[in-house]
């Protein structure tokens, strides 16, 4: 338990000293642009991560929203329930419903755009069109190749998930000041979740970088990243500070009042 507490204290200090919470959106834009330029110039050779079947991509990135919800739900529940009523907790948990709606609308919009802008070809040479297939799933299911405007869903979800996690783990800075010292079990569970969420953000940034360097065209990645940033900004910066909303995490609410 002491080891967990020490690591959490170091992570909290890292977020405070680096101001990473504020810099993260710009970091994703920079990585997306520089990684895309690097890909176009072919400056980085192929590695294990340039294969889309790599372990982290298959078992983490492709189900990244599931991992994000799996860890955020108990963390938000425990960190927001302390000394607060059920109405506040349920209001804060509704932010996960909103986020899931953002994820669903954006990803399905990407699929739709790829369908309406694409065509089915017999091979990657794209010389023979198979006009009987008008959707990507049908085309690929028949063993052919679909080519359309493929907005990067990975760039979107990895940026959006990371920014959302960064917002929701902010209360840990206040909780570590001693408000949970009398609840050892809750404090331990929060420590474990906090460490896991930090590890998840690090993994999402790593895989976002791999996506930028190895996959998609530059406009696909920049547009996907921009959608992720807009989803975060319009909720946590525009809507959530208002009364009729899921609200901000407790620490941010306190900072807003003091500003």
Automatic annotation (TrEMBL):
Highest taxon in the source lineage: Eukaryota
GO-annotated molecular function: coenzyme A diphosphatase activity
GO-annotated cellular components: endoplasmic reticulum membrane
Parts of the chain that traverse the membrane: 58-81, 93-113, 192-215
Topology with respect to the bilayer: Multi-pass membrane protein
GO biological process: lipid droplet organization; lipid storage; phospholipid biosynthetic process
Entry keywords, A to Z: Endoplasmic reticulum, Hydrolase, Lipid metabolism, Membrane, Transmembrane, Transmembrane helix
Location of the protein in the cell: Endoplasmic reticulum membrane
Keyword Lipid metabolism carried by entry: yes
Acetylation among keywords: no
UniProt cross-references to InterPro entries, sorted A to Z: FIT, FITM1/2
HAMAP family for the chain: FITM2
Protein name: Fat storage-inducing transmembrane protein 2
Phylogenetic lineage: Eukaryota, Metazoa, Chordata, Craniata, Vertebrata
